[in-house]
Every structure is written in C-alpha cells, then in structure tokens.
Design a protein that fits this description.
With 266 residues, the chain is an all-alpha fold. Helix content is 67%, strand content 2%. The chain starts with a helix and ends in a 5-residue tail after the last helix.
Length: 266
C-alpha cells in the first residue's frame, strides 16, 4: 500500500512542480550570488556569504531561505490533501473497501507525507549543490567554528542537514494530517495548516510571547546549522527532534481518533 501511495503522490504534476520550484530556489539564489558577488561576511541569511567561496554552501543557504515559508507551504499542501483530498475526489470509500482498515490507511498516508518532507528538503539541497558546483569553486569546507572539513564530509553534513530539516517539518505535517481528517475540503485543510505555520513563526518572533517559544514547532527550525560546527552542537538539534516527536504524538493520535470514527460519505 505504501508503494502505491508514494507512486500516486510523486506522479502528480502538482507535486512534481512543487519539488521543481523548491530545487529552483537555491539555484536561483546561487545565480544571484554569482552575478552580484553575494553579501559581505555576516550579512544576509546564514551561509549565503560563503557561497562564492565554496559552492557547497548554496545548498545550506537554500535550506535557510526555504525553511521559513516555502517548505512549510508545500508540506501544508501535501499533508492537508492527504485525507481530505480522497474524500473530495470520492475515492475514500474505494480505499476503505480494501482489506486494510482505517488505521493502516492513515498510517500509510502519514508515512507518505513524512517521506515527502524528506524528499522536499533533499530537492532543495540537490538544487543548491548542483548550481553551486556549476557556478563556484568546490573544495574543503570551512565550518562555522573556523575549522576545515574534507569536501566529502561537508557534503555528507549538508544532506544530514536536509534530513534534520525534513524531520523538523514532521510536527507541521502531523498537524496537517489531523486537520485533513476534519474536513472534506482539501483547500481549507491546506490553508489551515499553512496558517498554523505562520502563527507559530509570528509568535516565535514576538518577545512578549517568549514563554511559549520553546513549545512552538518552528522554534528550532534553524538548528540544522549547528551541523556545520566542529564539533557538532547537538543540543538544539536534539531539542528540535524531541519537540517534533511531541507534536507527532499528540496530533497523530488526534488524527487517528477522528479518522477511526469519522463517517465516510464519499
């Protein structure tokens, strides 16, 4: 069932377009740096001032630029459509006639959304890395701590960072899956999920709500940058993964409770 769901998801033109746009963002960023020379040290998004010295940083700069808005938006689209989209198309009854059960169907949908989160982040990293290799020199990687790493270790940490960002989006994905069980209108579920991401990001930047910051699923989204330190600073990364696990536990359980008792009319 999982392979069928994945094939269906990644065959959709909308999903292909979303992944293409995500890959194009860091590539466009690298082109802009190539023609402008990029910002001076300490200015602009993290890693952007390093791109002209080492093209590998285009992938990390791309992750930094896309995590506040673009990645949450595409995750909201896919997770919000997971259940509501089937109901809207009238295919939910057909899916439930198979000997799978609602719990297995929901788990398959959740796994599909999780894999998409990882694929979206890998698309960003690949787009940036390919553009960086074409436009800029590639060599040893200077970490944020001032030490140097062999190129292969830098590339490994880049894709590890993509994996961390993908895991950071799972809290939002679980919210989207839950919202998707509440309605038969996928557009509404997508909009509501994107709204939760915007609300969390706004609250995370308001000093008056500092007591809430450690509990917001967006709070540690930029923690992946600590992978480019030597040694790696794991504190914020672990805190991020622990927080996402909490959101997954709460909203996945809520999605199961809702979907297992929902009247399927289409």
């Amino acid at each position: 069932m999982l392979s069928a769901e994945l094939a269906t998801l990644f065959r959709r033109m909308r999903v292909k377009a979303l992944l293409g746009v995500l890959a194009a963002i860091p590539a466009g960023l690298a082109v802009a740096v190539y023609f402008s020379g990029g910002p001076s040290s300490g200015r602009g998004p993290t890693f952007l001032d390093q791109v002209s010295h080492n093209g590998m940083f285009a992938a990390l700069a791309g992750l930094t630029v896309t995590i506040p808005f673009f990645l949450p938006l595409v995750v909201a689209v896919v997770s919000g459509d997971a259940i509501a989209g089937e109901a809207n198309l009238g295919t939910m009854r057909y899916l439930l006639t198979r000997p799978s059960g609602r719990t297995r169907l929901l788990a398959t949908k959740a796994a599909t959304v999780a894999i998409f989160c990882l694929a979206a982040c890998v698309a960003v990293a690949l787009g940036g890395l390919i553009a960086g290799v074409i436009l800029f020199p590639i060599g040893k990687v200077v970490t944020l701590s001032g030490t140097t790493l062999p190129l292969w270790k830098g590339i490994f940490r880049t894709f590890l960072a993509a994996g961390v960002v993908g895991a950071s989006l799972l809290g939002l994905a679980s919210i989207g899956l839950f919202v998707s069980t509440l309605t038969d209108a996928p557009v509404g579920a997508m909009a509501a999920t994107a709204g939760f991401a915007v609300l969390s990001a706004v609250l995370d930047n308001v000093p008056q709500t500092h007591a809430l910051h450690p509990w917001l699923f967006t709070h540690h989204w930029l923690a992946f940058g600590d992978l480019l330190r030597s040694p790696v600073h794991w504190t914020n990364i672990v805190a991020d993964l622990r927080l996402q696990a909490g959101y997954i536990a709460v909203f996945a359980t809520a999605a199961w409770a809702r979907f297992s008792t929902k009247d399927v009319l289409a």
